[in-house]
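Researcher: Next sequence.
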Amino acid sequence: LYALTLILGASGCTSLPPAPPPAVECLKPEPPPAWVMEPAPNLIQLLDRIISPSGLEFSE
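Model: Next structure:
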């Protein structure tokens, strides 16, 4: 019984038809916008100007 199941299972796996080619080809994605390519701002310097540990460096 085990051999029969194995044979039927193996024959079922090999008789699958090949996958059809895609009907519509995927388009290439658009390039990213220019602002994505710019370097990120340095937020640490901005935070250092806003928040200081001593409270004495506030100049505005």
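Model: The two ends are 88 Å apart (CA to CA). The mean pLDDT is 72.
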